[in-house]
Amino acid sequence: MLLISWLYSVLSVISVVHFLRYDAEMPEFFHPQDVRRLVESIVADERIRRLSTTFLPDRATVISVTEQFRWLLFPGFYGSRELSPDSLPHHVGQVLESIAAGLFEQISAALRYQRNVEAGTDSFESKCAESETQAREIVKSFIGDLPWIRRVVSLDVQAAFDGDPAAHHTDEIIFCYPGLRALSVHRLAHELYNRNVPLIPRIMAEHAHSQTGIDIHPGARIGQSFFIDHGTGVVIGETARIGEHCKVYQGVTLGAKGFEKDERGRLKRGTKRHPTLEDHVTVYAGATILGGDTVIGAGCVINGGVLVTSSVPPGHVVRGPKAEVTLRSNPDLPPTNFAI
Predict the structure, then answer these.
(1) Which of 72, 125, 169, 322 is the most exposed place for a label (fewest CB within 10 A)?
(2) Contact, 279 vs 298, CB < 8 A?
(3) How does pLDDT run across 249-301, given as a tens digit for each residue?
(4) How many whole angstroms separate alpha carbon 72 and alpha carbon 50?
């Protein structure tokens, strides 16, 4: 509270100075009073301001590191193409060095933020040291897992090619398919999420979401050989569990049926809220599956547009009521013969 009071006093003085300056300059589009009111608004609401961002990760840097991973996952498709077996080790080393430095810096900042590190406190130095040590261990472990992540992404590419007759080559999947883009970022973000890295996995996931229209929470556990076809509007919640060789189409939601609350009416966090798909499940366009206790058994097919809120035994097809189709003549039919 003392810090808040001090900030308020400082900003109040600043606002007076700016008030006088703006009053002298007579701005065209706003009155000096607007400056003072905005300053007061900023000081009063701690939820949407950070006056010192020293210990916050930088979103632009996180996105930059995420984009660098594209070269490591798909060398030759993105970034430098003038490589040979002899030059490859040097180039990989350079890219890894850049990624590791950026990732270490951002994870350190995120951990300091999580630990609520404040300059000038007795624990400042020790908390900073703890954050850097933990960040260094996370980055080393994460980079050590990159060959495994590349293998899993390669299986996703093959699953997309095998599952879509419109694809002519796996190269087309890598260059063009938003589902693979969202999923490859998720594979990276999920590993950081599993290492309890705050904020950064969500920044990565929402960057991919903004690019593709596919919303995958980094906490979702997705098995190998997963394919998202078309993809627009797909939502996969934090506690969703997806087995191997599954496929979902555009507009599919794996969401929560409701939210548990504690005795004080606050949302319970960390509970299983989203459904589970066992192996070899296909979910067609527009289907919605809800609930943490909802399990779609292995080998099931969920038809398009279906709402599922309870478990389905393995080996079943789930479809909704058959829509009734009626035909009538078109009085506005043009006279031209346009039959194909």
Answers:
(1) 322
(2) yes
(3) 999 999 999 777 777 878 878 899 999 999 999 999 999 999 999 999 999 99
(4) 34
- Residue 86's Cβ-count burial label (10 Å; 0-12, 13-18, 19+) is exposed
How many angstroms from the chain centroid is the CA of residue 82?
32
Last residue within a domain, chosen from 198, 214, 230: 214
Q: What is the pTM of this model?
A: 0.85
Amino acid identity, residue 82? E
Answer whether 245's CB lies under 8 Å from 282's CB: no
Last residue of some domain: 35, 51, 67?
51
Contact 77, 171 (CB under 8 A): yes
Cβ atoms of 281 and 296 within 8 Å: the answer is: yes
DSSP classification of residue 324: P
Residue 75 DSSP symbol: B
CA–CA separation, 71 and 173 (whole Å): 15
Tell me the residue range of the domain where 274 lies: 220-320
- Under 8 Å between Cβ of 290 and 259: no
